[in-house]
Design goal:
By secondary structure, the protein is α/β, with parallel strands linked by helices. The protein contains eleven helices and 13 strands. The protein is globular.
């Protein structure tokens, strides 16, 4: 049975005047979640922004998309996430990844380790974080982290914890996501540590299917039911138009994909409202992706997308 559609908005900062009204408007429009990225670009701190957004809304989930594991110690992340979950009344979605943007590491003077090392660090961090949400005391000794007798992160009820979201694009990170995550973001692989002209091609339709299968393999290997995982995608380009041909041709020219591949790539949502709805329903049928996150930098676009796509599909 298909999982119902949910929609989220990702943004890194809000207007200093009227920020609360904008957050409440996103909730009113029917979006399920507000997500905050985690980079050292000119963006607001994700923990503070999520806490503020939760304080001025009633139903909107607040989440990180996603914390870089190297930017904060897992003990710090566990406490922040548990606190957000309590303050929001259970509305926190905890997104974490292995880190990918090399400029973040360069700016902060951190070592940009190999993908395998960063993924191994994420694996250990998730074990510590989940333990700190459920156990009165956590001790852990691994290759990357050692934790001794750390108290529970917050007074979470038995069985209550933030939902874990892990995003990634390669087989190793996605199999890890299948082992650990409640929600998995299907992303392009970024081996260069930056977005390049080749990046979108890694989310052409046939690659998306392959990535979903890596997640399912990881879940099965861990004794988990792959059907229990919610799959998400993040779109960078929204083109609501009855005549998407010119936009798709331009995107095809810049990415090396065909226009048909552009029309079916999760990074791009182009076409009329009904056409985008049909595309999302077909993608959910083929891949299981039901959680769609769009950029929140243009509120006019957020409003238009809500009317054309969120209203007819959310919860269905």
């Amino acid at each position: 049975m298909a999982r119902p559609f949910r929609f989220g908005v990702q943004l890194g900062q809000l207007p200093s005047d009227g920020w609360a009204d904008q957050v409440r408007r996103i909730e009113e429009l029917g979006y399920a979640s507000l997500f905050v990225p985690d980079h050292f670009t000119p963006q607001w701190d994700p923990v503070a922004l999520q806490a503020a957004a939760a304080a001025v809304t009633q139903q909107l989930n607040v989440g990180s998309l996603v914390y870089g594991v190297d930017y904060r110690h897992p003990v710090v992340l566990a406490k922040a996430a548990a606190t957000l979950h309590v303050l929001s009344g259970g509305r926190h979605e905890f997104g974490i990844g292995a880190g990918w943007m090399q400029t973040d590491y360069d700016q902060a003077g951190m070592v940009y380790d190999s993908p395998g090392t960063r993924i191994a660090r994420l694996d250990e961090a998730l074990q510590i974080i989940r333990s700190m949400w459920s156990q009165d005391e956590t001790s852990f000794e691994g290759e990357h982290f050692t934790v001794r007798s750390v108290p529970k992160a917050a007074a979470l009820a038995t069985g209550e914890a933030p939902r874990v979201l892990v995003g990634g694009g390669g087989p190793k990170i996605l199999r890890l996501a299948g082992r650990h995550a409640d929600i998995v973001g299907i992303n392009p692989s970024l081996p260069e540590g930056r977005v390049t002209g080749d990046t979108p091609r890694d989310l052409r339709p046939e690659r998306v299917n392959e990535k979903v299968e890596w997640v399912r393999e990881g879940a099965r290997a861990a004794g988990r039911d792959p059907e229990a995982i919610e799959f998400s995608s993040l779109s960078f380009v929204i083109g609501l138009t009855d005549e998407p041909g010119n936009l798709r041709r331009a995107l095809a020219g810049s990415t090396g994909m065909s226009e048909e591949q552009v029309a079916n790539c999760p990074l791009f949502l182009t076409g009329s409202g009904p056409e985008i709805c049909d595309c999302l329903q077909a993608r959910r049928e083929q891949t299981g992706i039901s959680y769609v996150v769009v950029p929140g930098t243009d509120m006019d676009q957020v409003e238009a997308f809500a009317e054309a796509v969120v209203a007819p599909l959310a919860g269905k």
